[in-house]
Design brief:
The protein is α+β, with helices and mostly antiparallel strands and 422 residues long. 55% of the residues lie in helices and 17% in strands.
């Protein structure tokens, strides 16, 4: 029997139409199984996207390090002593820890917490002032939409230049006004704007970053009379090394340089992005695994329903199958007929479920964008094309298996017994 035999397909459609309600509920089980699988996969990806976007393009092999109060007396210094990193520490870290790829010392200027610290013409506002190094934009990149970021010459010459966030531009300049080359008065000192950036993160994080002004760290130290103080470090490890190794070595070196006890774990604080990223990856792998288990379980329930219905169909068509066998239909013809019906029903229902699931996810994403809803934890729910095809392939295979048992039962019926069956 040919696969594209018109008579064969007319017979299949006629059979399915005979009991429309039964066909509908059988197909609905399959539809619901793949629909729920797609919705759950898309939701899992939405959670993943939300958390990932919260990190922007931050290097996952990075860590941040800052000073805290000592917790152990050492070398005559009391417990509870405060200390600061300095410019010499930067050179020491680069000289002694070869696993470091990028290092960016950072320092925050005072002001900006509700008190206006930036002036331009008749406009005043309060912004966060950050002293940065060029490498910071390689560790936690910003989207430079105009101009440039801080460079090495700015650092060496302590230039009075500034890279401003999008919200700073919006508040200090007219819409469409050229900002590059213009000046902002920051804490009484004029800085020339050389770049404008947008955050790659989302919602509150993006808003906070876009209200910042970055100036060369060396300029900030001089302007704010901070001497050689460093606030904290952002560091990444080379690709062949773990940032955890760098973290331990950097802390040990800083304890030694600042007369802190080697056993004092509290004196230097740190945040290991690599460890947090690994936890996040493991979590979402677990979520995806659970989604596939639950989704395929739901799908199999629908497939079992198809198999049971096909058994009923075979029983109802016992006499018809006997007549077919009697006039020369081979076992393969009968098996092909039953399996084709099963695969057709499951594939059709599965495709509709797949398309509906993808459509619902697109609708949710459209609503999120249109309403401007918070996407801190959920963003752009989507289904990977390969996963969707995999799900549909599994469905088709299961559909064939669902028809196999009824098909075998059909060919085991002796033609003479089938014809006599009432």
């Amino acid at each position: 029997m040919k696969l594209f035999d018109i008579d064969k397909w007319n017979e299949i459609i006629s059979t399915l139409k005979k009991n429309k309600l039964r066909t509908f509920f059988t197909a609905f089980g399959v539809f619901w199984g793949i629909f729920m699988l797609i919705i759950m996969l898309g939701s899992g990806k939405g959670l993943d996207n939300g958390v990932s976007q919260g990190m922007g393009d931050m290097a996952t092999n990075s860590m941040f390090m800052w000073t805290q109060q000592t917790s152990i007396p050492f070398k005559g210094f009391p417990r509870g002593r405060r200390f600061n990193f300095n410019n010499g520490d930067t050179e020491a870290l680069l000289s002694n820890i070869s696993e470091i790829e990028y290092i960016a010392p950072k320092l925050r200027g005072w002001g900006g917490n509700g008190n206006n610290n930036v002036i331009r013409k008749d406009r005043t506002a309060a912004f966060t002032i950050q002293g940065n190094y060029p490498d910071y934009n390689l560790i936690d990149p910003m989207n430079i939409i105009k101009g440039r970021y801080i460079n090495e010459i700015d650092i060496e010459n302590k230039r009075k230049v500034a890279v401003i966030g999008q919200r700073v531009y919006n508040e200090m300049f007219e819409p469409g006004e050229e900002a590059i080359g213009e000046y902002l008065k920051i804490q009484g000192v004029f800085f020339q704007v050389v770049g404008i950036y947008k955050s790659k993160k989302n919602d509150q994080q993006a808003e906070r970053e876009e209200r910042e002004i970055s100036i060369p760290l060396t300029t900030l130290q001089k302007t704010y009379n901070y001497g050689d103080i460093i606030g904290h470090y952002a560091i990444t490890a080379k690709k062949s090394y773990s940032v955890s190794e760098v973290e331990e070595k950097a802390k040990a070196l800083m304890r030694s340089r600042h007369s802190v006890s080697p056993d004092d774990e509290r004196a230097i604080g740190s945040f290991n992005v690599e460890n947090e990223y690994k936890k996040m990856v493991t979590l979402f792998k677990g979520i995806n695994g659970l989604i596939w288990i639950v989704g395929i379980g739901t799908l199999l329930a629908g497939i079992i329903g198809v198999s049971n219905i096909m058994l009923i169909v075979v029983k109802e068509r016992t006499k018809e199958i006997g007549i077919q066998r009697a006039i020369g239909a081979t076992p393969s013809n009968v098996i092909s007929q039953i399996i084709t019906e099963s695969v057709f029903l499951t594939t059709l229902a599965g495709y509709i479920g797949l398309a509906t699931g993808v459509g619902i996810l697109e609708l949710i994403n459209w609503v999120l964008i249109k309403t401007g809803a918070s996407t801190d934890m959920f963003n752009n729910p989507e289904v990977d094309f390969n996963k969707a095809i995999t799900a549909l392939t599994i469905l088709i295979i299961c559909g064939a298996l669902a028809g196999l048992i009824p098909a075998k039962r059909a060919v085991n019926i002796k033609p003479i017994d089938a014809i006599r069956d009432e």
